[in-house]
Design goal:
The protein is of the alpha+beta class. The chain has one domain (15-101): 2-Layer Sandwich (Alpha-Beta Plaits), CATH 3.30.70.100. It has helices at 30-42, 68-75, 78-91; strands at 15-22, 47-55, 58-65, 94-101. A four-stranded antiparallel β-sheet has the order 2-3-1-4. Strand 2 (47-55) and strand 3 form a beta hairpin. Helix 1 runs antiparallel to helix 3 (78-91).
């Protein structure tokens, strides 16, 4: 699978949330929580998709959202709050989250 997701419907006014993390490759309980949170977020109308790159313990996960209200809705979601709590307590060595408005986007694929 390609890192660049060609079918993302991104337009100015959408938002990107960059999640940079350091964690072990397969910590206990992580895969189950990842499946639960991805199933929940994919059911949200304002969620547009994601791109992910992983290199050993390091990862960059970029999620895309219709607008800031959608980002805030996911940020306060009970399951997402639970996942963040578990992440800080058990899985992540470090992480950074950055919320960015999308002002411009372009795409190319040969």
């Amino acid at each position: 699978m390609s890192f660049i997701q060609d079918r993302l419907p991104l337009t100015p006014g959408n938002y990107a949330v960059l999640f940079l993390s350091e964690r072990p490759s397969d910590p206990e309980g992580y895969a189950e929580m990842d499946q639960r949170t991805m199933a929940a977020v994919e059911g949200m109308e304002a969620y547009l998709g994601y791109e992910l790159v992983r290199n050993g313990e390091d990862a960059i996960f970029i999620s895309y959202w219709k607008d800031k209200a959608a980002v805030d809705s996911w940020r306060t979601d009970a399951l997402h709050r639970e996942a963040k709590m578990q992440g800080r307590a058990h899985w992540y060595h470090a992480y950074r989250s950055v919320v960015c408005p999308i002002e411009e986007t372009s795409h190319f694929r040969r």
